[in-house]
Amino acid sequence: MRHGGQILVDQLKAQGVRRVFSVPGESFLAALDGLHDSGIENIVCRHEGGATMMAEAHAKLTGRPGVVFVTRGPGATNGSAGIHIAKQDSTPLIMFVGQIDNRHRDREAFQEVDYRAFFTPIAKWAGEIDQTDRIPEYVSRAFHLALSGRPGPVVLALPENMLEARVDVPDLPPVAPTPPSVCGAQIDALVEMLCRAERPLVVAGGSVWSTRTAQDLARFAENFDLPVTATFRRQDRMDNRHLHYAGDLGASPNPALAQRMRDADCLLILGSRFGDIASGHYARVDPAAPGKTLLHVHPDPDEPGTVFRPDLALVAPAGNVIARLARREAPAHPDWADWTKAARADYCDWIKPRETPGALKLEQVIAYLSDCLPDNAIVTNGAGNFAAWLHRYFRARAFPGHLAPTSGSMGYGVPAAVSAKLEHPDRPVVCLAGDGDFQMTMNELSTARQYGAAFVTLVCNNGRYGTIRMHQERTYPGRVSGTDLFNPDFAALVRAYGGHGECVARTEDFPAAFERALASGLPALIELRLDPEVLAPGQELSDARAEGERSPG
To answer: Would you tell me how many other CB atoms lie within 10 Å of the CB of residue 499?
Structure first.
């Protein structure tokens, strides 16, 4: 006879879970008891949003569902930010939520929430376990759903009386491997259609990637002499230093790459949903009239055709198809050499640093990181204009070289860096954050210190919510409202957490400061003091205001 918390944890062990993230609550005490002496590492975080982001980043790194425990009511609603990230990023994730005693349901008991109603719009599935003897069944379903088709987040509510009850129930074995779902004839058809193109372009993205898949993609590009692009914040799908890498289709892509997408007569989309950002808000590729052949590889049979009608769709994990393509000898096809070289030349020109105002040049800081970080480095970031410098100037290493939220969530960089350093303690991990972005989850520096996650955070301090200020100046020039920030002494703050902190105001001082931060063996932070005119690569604050003043209305 085991209590429900023990049955739950035994099921996690059967599924191969090594680490979970949590903020404790009295609603799941039996699960915490089950974790005691289980061999599963429980990373105790400072906020449920940070905990869920850490679990999401863990899933990105491992390809296995991240697991997070949060308590009822405000704990679950705090964690919903990470659920939304996992949904839009197609990341396998399971959130276990402590729930009220189910005998008190529908009385608006203390912290009562209907989790099925709350999470269904942003999760792949939300359920509640009312019978202790059904825990193995529900956990098995959660892992299957998180990994199947388009991966995503699953939420399971755990009534506290259900967890405390004792029953005799057998465990279920882990999720069975999914066999490859494409055959040689389908690969033949894809290659045949690709090789009819005069100007093909590969678009790589999606989730559940691996180092091997990144290597296979590079081999496929070499064998077929193809240019490869990455979708928004998936830049590590291929080493950006590779001669066939042509840039990323982010929020502000290289205009030459955007035009190349328009000019392409065939897009081979590998793993990505190919949404609004990659397609230029459906302007570079019009769903009503694409004007090019679309070859779409995606693991979910319901995804191809949802927005863009594919000429050929293969329902399979991108990694499986890429592995098969990497082993193929390229058949006869038009000469793509000049097309591919031109795409690479455009990328190389795009990443040449363009000078910004002030004594500290963020473009030079990123160029230094790009040139000097070792091949196994991992860089993380949240959301804000600061990230545009990283996406433009940093040559991401092959997977896992870059962790960032395609959902555009602020506050992601620090929790992701904690998770990355825990999973890869031997690798240098660097988080790039904005001043507003950093302050959303900076309390997880305490988690980093507790568990020895020694990464370096670079805080880009321009004293404002830069992205919103940019749009504000363009739309309502000179009418600043709600975008200025009072900031703490960031270097002193990290020292208060027991870490290493410095402030840098000149470009030439950064390399030495960064080396000291790396060598400290502690969670480290370097505050980068930016000129107030710094707004975005290629645009200063006064430029945005002038643009707004010129606009009609």
So the answer is: 23
Residues 6 or more apart whose CB falls under 8 angstroms from that of 289 comprise: none
Distances (CA, A) of 380 to 1, 67, 204: 44, 20, 19
Domain segments of the chain: what residues? 2-167, 184-350, 362-550
Asked if the domains 184-350 and 362-550 are classified in one and the same CATH topology, the answer is yes
Superfamily covering domain 184-350: TPP-binding domain (3.40.50.1220)
Asked if residues 254 and 232 have their Cβ atoms less than 8 Å apart, the reply is: no
pLDDT tens sequence across 301-329: 999 999 999 999 999 999 999 999 999 99
- Between CA 404 and CA 366, with CA 501 as vertex, the angle to 5 degrees is 45
CATH code of the domain made up of 362-550: 3.40.50.970
pLDDT score at 1 = 92
Amino acid at 337: A
Q: What local confidence, expressed as pLDDT, does residue 534 receive?
A: 82
pTM of the complete model: 0.94
Rounded CA separation 71/99 (Å): 7
Q: Give the other-Cβ count within 10 Å of 51's Cβ.
A: 30
95 with 70: CB under 8 angstroms?
Answer: yes
For tokens 């590009």, the residue is 221
Q: Which of 98, 250, 106, 274 is nearest to 202 (CA)?
A: 274
The β-bridge relationship of strands 166-167 and 2-3 is antiparallel
Distance CA 399, CA 209 (A): 7
Q: Assign a CATH topology to domain 2-167.
A: Rossmann fold (3.40.50)
pLDDT in tens, 357-390: 999 999 999 999 999 999 999 999 999 989 999 9
110-117 contacts at long range (C-beta below 8 A, 24 or more positions apart): 110/73, 111/27, 111/71, 111/72, 111/73, 111/74, 112/72, 112/73, 113/72, 113/73, 113/76, 113/77, 115/76, 115/155, 115/157, 116/157
- Amino acid identity at 447: T
Q: Tell me: the pLDDT tens digits for 106-116? A: 888 777 889 99
